[in-house]
Design a protein that fits this description.
The structure is a homodimer. Chain A is of the alpha+beta class. In chain A, about 50% of the residues lie in helices and about 20% in strands. The first copy, chain A, contains 5 helices and 5 strands; from the N terminus they run αααβαββαββ. In chain A, strands 1-2-3-5-4 form a 5-stranded mixed sheet. In chain A, helix 4 links the parallel strand 1 and strand 2. Chain A starts with a helix and ends with a strand.
Chain lengths: ~180, ~180
């Protein structure tokens, strides 16, 4: 019973997202903005391709977490992209879900209660190594908390922070998987 | 782990369906068939509305079953519509999922291995009673099997077959919920 409820809810959220974009297309067709329509469709195809790629990295926990994150009420809005050819990253699923969840929860607790907060996650597998880029834009209220967390989470078994930069309205973090 | 895999798979199917329709829109925009584009969008909105209504009938097992049916490889293709205002039909969820599953499995086993088989399910809650219409079009190889099943499944506790008609290429079945 629980599981079927989940299917219905999951498809409700997914349908909602697609319908919003469909309304955008519809509105622009009515205004005869065909160039804008083409752009919107391009963006939708891109997003779907990233989603498909994320789904194929064999990181089921991380993929499910990221793909459904914006459906719940949060301060931070998450976007992601996957650059390069799909690889089997299954050995990183457990460590990356824990690490990413912890970072995102930290951000949720460190940003200003109001304001637009965006986190862009770029998964780069174009080279032989695997790198995750976390680019945050928004208003950070508690920068010290983040810097402390980065210090403490820099030496996980499979995860190494290779770059870290923080300002009041920006944070970037580069992570290499070992 | 299992659950997250399901989320990823579920969203893969859903994305696939939406992308197919998006391709149709894209193709028709390129051909400058704007009237066709508008029609396609209308159809997509209608389908999404039926899906939303089905999701709100509090028939979670039946809704999940119908919404995901075409994602697996089957001989019969299912479409559905919900006519009327949404009501709480939760007391029928268990009996309707069992009954409907049994009917659809029967159809799968009674149709010709080749050919296009369509089952349209119309849930009509416009009046005080609740009625399900099952309209099948395709090639039925084993009509006797179906007639026998209808005889045997006509007197469930909550379900009454109020109309039944069968030809080689068509079957219609009307069910009233008590």
């Amino acid at each position: 019973m629980k599981k079927q409820l989940d299917i219905v809810e999951l498809l409700r959220h997914s349908r909602h997202d697609w319908l919003n974009k469909l309304q955008l297309i519809k509105g622009n067709i009515e205004l005869d903005n065909l160039d804008r329509v083409k752009e919107i469709i391009e963006e939708m195809v891109f997003e779907a391709e990233y989603e498909a790629k994320l789904s194929n990295l064999k990181l089921p926990s991380l993929a499910a977490y990221l793909m459904t994150y914006n459906w719940e009420s949060h301060k931070v809005f998450i976007e992601y992209e996957v650059l390069g050819e799909v690889q089997d990253l299954s050995k990183y699923d457990r460590s990356m879900i824990n690490w990413t969840k912890s970072l995102i929860e930290l951000l949720e607790n460190s940003v200003h209660p109001n304001g637009n907060h965006h986190l862009n996650i770029s998964i780069d597998i174009r080279n032989n190594d695997v790198r995750f880029f976390f680019d945050f834009r928004g208003i950070i209220s508690e920068a010290d908390k983040i810097t402390l967390w980065v210090k403490n989470n820099n030496s996980e078994e499979q995860i190494s922070i290779t770059d870290y930069d923080l300002h009041t309205t920006e944070m970037s973090l580069e992570v290499s998987l070992l």
